[in-house]
Amino acid sequence: MNKQLKYKILSLVFTGADPNTKNQITSMPLIHVTAKIGNLGELEMLLGEAKTDVNVKDNEGRTILHRWARVSEKNPDDKEKLEKCFKCIVQKGFNTNRSFKDKDSSESTTFSTAVGCENSGRVVQMLDTDINYAEWAHIREVLESANESFVKSILDYCFESNDEPVNSKDLEVKFKIFAILNMIHYVIVSPHKELLKHPVLSAFISLSWKRLKYFFFLQCCFLLFVFGFPDGIHSVFGIL
Fold this sequence. Notes:
There is one protein chain. This protein is mainly α. Helix content is 57%, strand content 2%. It has 13 helices and 2 strands, in the order H-H-H-H-H-H-H-H-H-H-E-E-H-H-H. A two-stranded antiparallel ribbon has the order 1-2. The longest helix has 29 residues, at 199-227.
């Protein structure tokens, strides 16, 4: 972060300046400007201010997430900063579900903007939230318009590791659960069902089955007991 710029912003805020002021020429709010030019440190700082309104729009109807969705990762630590900014936006009460299909004057939504710019990291962060059913139709429509190679790159971002070798006992893998479940949902109802064989999805499904199969078999045994044996066998398999 530019220390001189940081000092100026802090001075303005502490002296009572309104962080929601819009540029008189571009009508762009300050948080939009910092996101657009990629000053993620300044953006994170402004988002931390109690007076900052994350729902403010410019005269084109764009929200802060419209700007955030366009930001590309230029530096090694940009990914972490962008994730922190997204969390700050959500914590300040921004309606992320609504914003997925909240259109600006050019009919672009936050989600379609991220997909259009092929910012896989931004797409995954939005997918890694509890999306309600009303927004799902829009997400599916946008993903269906994307090329298959980009959809695959989205799946590549759905997990993180500590970069240890694959055969190392110190390897740690963290799945982005909501993002993966939303992508599984999409793949099942899309023409790209072969993507279920993607390493990320196949590994997640395999691990999930290993954890749940015992509960599945216990439930089957319980049903056999309830319906009686051998009639229970026919009843259980009739249900399954």
